[in-house]
Structures are given as C-alpha cells and as structure tokens.
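Aim 2, interim progress. The first record below pairs a target sequence with its structure tokens.
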Amino acid sequence: MIGTALRFEILGEVRVLRGGVALPLGPAKQQAVLAVLLLQAGRPVPTHQIVDAVWGDDPPENGANVVQKYVAGLRRVLDPERAPRTPGELLALTGSGYVLRAEGAVDADDFQAALTRAEAEQAAGSAAEASATLRAGLALWRGEALAGLTGPVFDAARTRLADARATAWERWAELGLAQGRADALIPELARLIEEFPLREGLRVQQMLALHRVGRQAEALAFYQNTREFFLDEVGAEPGERMRAAHLTILRNDAPISPAVIPAQRSEPTYRAAPTPVPMPVSIPIHPAAGPPIHLPPARRSNNIALEIIFALAAPLLTCSVASWVYFVYAGIRRRQWWQFVVAAVYFVLFAVGFVVLVLIDPSGSLDSDEVTTSDNIGMLFFGSLVLGSALHGVIVAVRSDGFQLREQARQFAAFAPDRAREVGIGRPDLPMRMFDDGGLIDLNQLSGPDLARIARLPLAQCLEIERHRQTYGPFYRPEDLVSRGLADARTVRKLAARLICLPPGPAPAMAAWPPPR
C-alpha cells in the first residue's frame, strides 16, 4: 500500500489518496500548507509566502519553524518510508522554501488537460468526443475548490478554478446544442445558471435551447428576467451574444447554431463615469473582439443617500445611544474589521459617559432642579459624541461610494477582462475614461512613474516593479508584490482596496519566475 502512487485533489476539500484511500492530513493549518504547495506544484515556494497565505495578517512569531513542523508532518504522511529528517524527493527543501513534486497527480491539472484536449477535439470536428472529454473533466469536481480554506491566496485560486469550471460547462452546453440535445440540456442549464448566475454564456445557451424546442415565449421571458437581473446586480445590459439570440427569437428565425455566435465570452455593457454632457458614447475596440461597447452615462448607487441618512439618524435620534450601530453595519457590508473597532470605541465612550455622568452622578444633580457644572459637562460630552459619530458616519458613507464603484469594477473585470482594459479600469493615469472604477490601480498596466505618483510609493520601488513585470511576466494578485520581494506585506495591505491585476493582452515571451538558481 505504501508504494502506491499518490493522488492529490483540490477540486473540493483538499485530499490525498493512496490506492483510493484518503490519508489523514492532520490539523487544518497543515492542510493549508499542503494546499499552498499544491497550487504551485513543481515550483519552489518561499517560506514567507507560505506563512502569508496560511496565516494572513496574524502570522506566528516563529513562522518558519511552524511551517517546518507542518512540512515534517506532511512528509510522515506522504512519504513514510523515508527517515524523518531526510528531505526526500516528493516534498523537498529548497534554498528559501519548499517544493512539492506532484506532477501528473493533481486533479486540477487533469481538469485543465481535459479542457485542452476537448478544445483540440472540437477543432478537429469531433464534437461527441469533445463533449465526453469535458464531462469527464467536470466529473473531477467534488464541490467548491479548496473548500474550507480562507485567505486571499486561496480565494484567488478558488475564483480562477471556478471560472475555468464555468467555461467548461459553457463549452459543453454549446456542443450539446450542436448535437441536437436541446431537450436534455434545459434542466441541466437551469441548475448551472443557479450555480453561476453571472455567466452570460450559459444563459445564451438556455435561450437557444428553449427556442430550438419551440418554447419561444419562455425564451423571451427568460431574456427579460436576465436583463433585469444584470441591471439590478451589476448595472449591466446583456451582451452582444444574448442580444443577438434575442433578436433571432423575436424574428422567429430558424434556431441559430452555436457556431454562428462568437466563441469568446460576451460581456455586459457597463455604465460610463459621469461626463459634462450625459450622452451615450461608443468605445471602438479591436475588430476581433466584436462590436463597440455602448456606454450610457454612469449612475452612482442610490443607496448612498439612504446610508448617509442612516449614519446621521443613528446617533441623533437616539441621543448617542446608537452612535456605534452604523459602524457595525459598515464593517459587515464592506468586510472592514477596523469599522468594528470604531464601533467599539463609540460604544465604550457612551457606556463610560452614561455610568459616570448618569448612574454615579457624583454631584447629586439628578435630585436637584438646579443645572450644575456636572450637568453642563454631561450635555457637552453627549452632544460631542452625537455630532462626532454622526459626522464620522457621514464621511464613511460618502467614501463608500468609491468602495461600491470599485466592487462593481472588480466584478466587471472578473467577468470581462478584455473589455475592462478597453474602458480603462485600473488606469487613473488616462486623461479620459469611460468607466468610473473608484480609483483602482492596475499593477499590470501602469508605468513606474505613474504608479509612484498615484500610489504614493517611492519612485525607485515602482520602477523596479515595472522592470520586474516586463522581465518575469504579469502579476496575478497584489500579494505577488510580496512573494517577488517588491513590497512588504504592510504596504500591500494598505493599498489592497485599490489594487487590481488585470491579465494583459498578447505580449512577448517573458523570463520564468522564480528565476533559475
């Protein structure tokens, strides 16, 4: 049993199988260390990068020793035949970290290979074989990738893998329609749309499937529901693919073949940033990318006014009793832990003032009709608390508009990276842009001097970031600045709300990172 090859799985909970039997991987942190190594299988992973991925903002004091302990525990499970202090071939020590040699034994790699093989089979005209290959690859999934692991590194990997999974389902649905299996696809597509609500490709295939079986009215109703959903969720109109399918159904034309629709994902059309003259504009893009993007004037969230009213009303109407409530709401909504600290401070101030100036009442003014110095101090204290928390809440609420715009821009970028580059997301250096992204900074497009000016970082550091990007390739997440030794974790955390890494367009071949030793 010990000599049986290992099988590593991350498309679900992290598992390691030997002969089909799951191995005990130990504590949750030890499993997280294994997941970090699996995400970069075959490549050295520096120890500090493992610490950042597993512990985030709360690393242990002796992080390197803790990682070493967990690696030793993994060796005992994965390679028990070797001596405890022998590095071994499977999980080896490098100059500054560890490398897990698991080539050909990771389910995520098998899934990606299935996608590549299906693409080749489809290009060769073997639709049935391509469909079967995609379904076999999708069968590798056991749930959400890296289930149970939290942190920016795992979240980014989970998003990337989920996007690849949704793309595979879209291709599978297209092939199914080409093979005339519209009836069987309709219930399956309904399930997939519920799982991937923002994937327009799946919705297009559902419309076409309904049209092919003669359910035109349902297809048109489905389009209207989709349009309302996109407008409510991300402020977007349906993309060209869905509009083309909608027009075909309205004309009651013969059902169109998936081959007629461009293969790339269609993206929604986003609203432009406010301009002096609120007129629709068009952004020309590369002919291969499809028609121009039509952008009506931008509309900031209507919820901002309600949030400002909430921030004012909470302390004013309750005479400072609820001065902390709005900040709890802001912390939950924005996932910002420091808002909870602010809420705690305001709560403590109110509690202390109430106890000292009301319950204790050292001057006995509560039993007297005379206004004393203690009463004046109390009124001044609570009045200051009311005004201070109200003004502070309004400032936070107003600034939340930028937060909402950044979140909307990030959704757009994840959904349509090519179009995001076209409209200038992450490019505050451009004099005119058609999309208000709330001040995002794209590490893969800004020049060194512009990055230094906008992010307020040292010029020499930003020039090194630009040189590193040109030499070793693009950044995939802001944390890459730390793993590549270009910035410290504190700087990245400070700028994390504004940093984004859009995948670049076609570019010359880059040197490998990490560079060979």
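The second target in this work package is listed in the same format:
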Amino acid sequence: MQTISPVEPFSNLRLSYHFVLASCVFLLGIYIAQDFIKRASSGVKLPGPRGLPLVGNVLQMRNGHARALAQWTKIYGGMFRLTLGDREAVIINTHADVNKTLIQQGAAFQSRPEFKLWHGAFTKALDPDAPTTIGTTKYSEDISKYRRLLTAPTSAAKLPRFNHFAARRYSKLVNLLAESAKSGVAQDLAFHFWVTTIGISADILFGQRFDDDVTRLVADVNVRSFRQRSLATPLHDYIPLVASAEKLALALASPIRFVLRPFGLSTTWLDSIREAEDSAKDLRDAEIGFCTALLKDLHNRLDVGDQTPSQLGDIFRTVEPGTLTPRDELRLATTLAGSGMSGGTTLTWLTALLAAHPEMQEKAFRAIEEIYGGEVPDPMDTDRVEYIKALGLEAGRYFTSIRLGFPRETHEDVTVDGVFIPKGVLVVYNSYQINRDPQRYDFPEELLPERWMDGHYGRTDVKQSKVGVPHMNHGAGRRVCMGVPNVSKMSYGTLVLLLYFFKLERGSLGKAARDAVFPQLRAVGEASLEVHPIDDQVSVCDAQALPLAAGIKLTVRDSKALARWLAEGHRELDQWDRPRLDSE
C-alpha cells in the first residue's frame, strides 16, 4: 500500500496556486499589450492627457468631471481626446467647437453611445427587447420618425393646449409652499419643485391629473434612474477586465464568502455589485409598470371618444392604425414621462441661492409689480416679466445640472479641422465648461440674469442677436432636447408665483426636515450659502448634478392676497376646468 506524505497534497495545492497565478499574470500581460497596441493605433489624432494602461483617464475623472475637464481644457484647448478604459472619447469644450461639430456637421454627430449600466442592467433588466428612450438610442430612421411625431405636440405653440393641467399643478405648488411657510421653520423645497415640473410633464403626456402618490413615484424613479448614466463611472462600464471580474465574483459569491469570512475579511463589495444591478431592475420595473398602466388607461379613454388634449393622445388620434407598435408607444412614454426632471433640478439649485440673496428676490418682485401693478401674476403668461425669464435662463447656464450633456457618438467618419474622427467614437460636449466659455459669456463664474435682458444674449458688455441656443444644458443641433419649451414655461410659472407670494431665507434643517428631504440621498449634507455648482453637489460624478439639501424658510409677503388666490384667484386663469384650444 502506497503511503502519501501529509505534505504532498499541500505541495500539489501550491503548484496549482502558482500555475493559476502565473496564468493570470500571463493573461494580464497580453491584455496590457493589446491595450498599448490599441492606443498606438488610435483613430483620433487629437491632443489629450496621458492615461494609464487598462484604465486610460478613467481614474483621473472619478475625482470630479467638471474640474478635471476644465483643467484639461486650459492645457489642450477646445477639443481633446481621452481614453476611458477600452473607449476612445472626444471632448468638446467651447461654443466654437460645438459649431464646427454638432451644428455644421450635425449628421455625423447625431448618434448616441451605449453604456453597460444604462442600456444593459437598467434598460434590459426585465426584458432583453425592452426599448431605450429616444434620447439615449443610437441614430436610425426610427429615431427620425419618433422625433417627427413629437415635434408638434412638444412645440411652444402647442403648449397652451395643456394649460389646464399646469394650472392645477401651480395651485398645488402654492398650497405646498404656503404650508411650508406656516410651519415657520426652514425646509428643503426640492420635492415641491420636482413634483410640479415632473407632474406637469406626466399630466400633459397622458392627458390626466395624477394624484400625489403617482406623481411622487414618477418623480422618484426619474431622479434616481438618471444616476444610471454617467461618464467614467461605474468602472465596469469602461474597463472590460473589471466587468469580467465582477461577473466572476458574482458567480463565485458563495465560495468567496466561505473563504474570506473565517479570516474576518469583508465581502460587502460583493453585495454592492449585486445591489447596483438590483436597484437598476427595481427602477426599471417601476418605470415600465407605470408607463404601461398609463398607456392602457389612455387607450381606454380614447376608445370611448375622449378628446382631452395630451401629447400622446394627440399623436395616437392622428396616426394611421398600426403605425406605432406597443414597443414604439412605450418608448415614447418612457422618453417623456420624466421630462421635467432637469427643470426641477435647476429650480432647486436656484432657489437655494436666491434664499441667500434678498436683493435678487426684491428685484424680481419689483419687476413683477411693474408689469402687473399689484395684481397676482399669470404663471401662463410666459416671458412677460423679463427678469423672471432671465433668472431661469441664467440658472440653466450657471448651474448646468446636466453636466456633460447627453453624450453623442459619431454616426459616420468625419473630419474636423483636419482631424479624422472615425465612426463609433464617443463624443461628449462638456456642457458645464461650454457654459463658462469666456468667448461666449463675460463674468462666466457669476450668476447674472442681466446677461439675458434688454437686448443682451449671453454678455452684459454688448447687445447681440439671439442666435443659437442660449446655453448647452439641453444640447444643440440634431438630437437637441425637444422638451426645452416646456422646461422654460414651467420654470417661469414656478418662479413668478414663488417670488411674488414669498420671501426666502436660508436656515439650518432640523431633524424632521432632514428626514423629509427628497430624495433622501441629498441629505448627506447641506449646501453652503454660496451654493457652489461643484462643491455643493451630492456627487461629483453624477450625470445630473443634484444639489445638497438646503434649508429655506418662507415668509408670506401678503397673507390676504395669498389666501384670496388660494381660495379662488387661481380660477381667474380660466384654465381650471377646461383647456385653452385657441392654438389648435
């Protein structure tokens, strides 16, 4: 009988371990070599910062998009190249370069890239064939079809058809603000603004007035789902080795925990990987759920002859039967359901700043009084008070809540200033930096509504024609956001009522107020009185920059006027019970 040495099994184990380790090192070496070869044969010959093997410039971005890109813009100019893991990216940083690319050669820059978290874990979480939103889908003839369908119902000329929905929301907003004022303590007001802007968007999309529970659900899903798409994060979106390692870790989760736990080593990183995907699935489940239910309800109403104006209803009533599949309809619904998200975010930023600047509030109030002579302003009377319109425009430029826009991808080979950019390259218009382009804006680091008043268009030192988009928070050229007219209208209506009825003052949040912050992730801190666009955001890498919580104490300017308007004054808008159809 052969005797086996007690050392022999461990010796074999060590040999196996060394073999596995050597194999891993060998494969990693091949991967790095391929990485260097790929970079050496890059298709874009633009300057840019040197990156690390495997990860490129990803880690340099994770300390904050805005500041990293601003620093590189000073060094490399209006257009430069980054490597983000296995992806090559062109970054556009000035208005002049936007004009050369997105405007003058719009056809080449009209596609969208795909990201693993958004297009994979989120969009495909429940159904591999589930449609992405129109704004995040690669260019195709279908995209052109969808945008043509949406052109009329989202235009500024058609928005008055939906004023009766907006009137209800503005009444609800002023009631919420009045309750906050009655409390006598500082509260975070973001929920009021998001429920108003997202609520108006959902109401006019489906043609019905939603209750508070549905509106809160739509707002919550859209605020959190926007965090699924960002640049340079999460790492597995850009570095295949990380993606493969995470998949392997999840597949071997049980044995990994079995091995590590006896040694007291943490396995929470395994849970965080799973939680990110589970969260994406939950969000998608909620989004598909309420959009599907609301589409079904809309069709039921249309089938019995309902003529209530709505963006989707107007489309469904005019297209030939069979033109749109259920998948097409779901894509339209998910695209527009949360279109008030950026408007609510910008209002949250702006009001926190206004609360620390009583002089700006008084200037706004005097401007309203000058137009309306002591009467309550009409929130539907969009743009009548120039200072209110200018406040909304300037807040969009200054805070630039959508920091890096919605990324593009080259739809075809293109040459810009002699530089060849092949098809399929990730293109990012750095909206935060473009909105601070000194050639386009004087005093770019200051919030100055006056740059949009009295014939000025971006600069206070010169009057100029209103050519092009005022700022890049909603894009430019082809694939520009179609909801801009609605965002501008909601911003004006909200600000004119808020600043007419109330004075704002910053204050610290008590425990109850902190617990009520929406969404709760914003309660990790409180914004400074300066309300700095970078320092006072929840995360420096979010695609949409959410501001930290801000305590605002409201004081009613004229309690009798407010009480009168809440009781019956809003009905004078003539939009309470019926739509205005004069623009049909």
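Residues 112 and 136 are 6 Å apart (CA to CA). This observation will shape the mutagenesis plan for the next reporting period.
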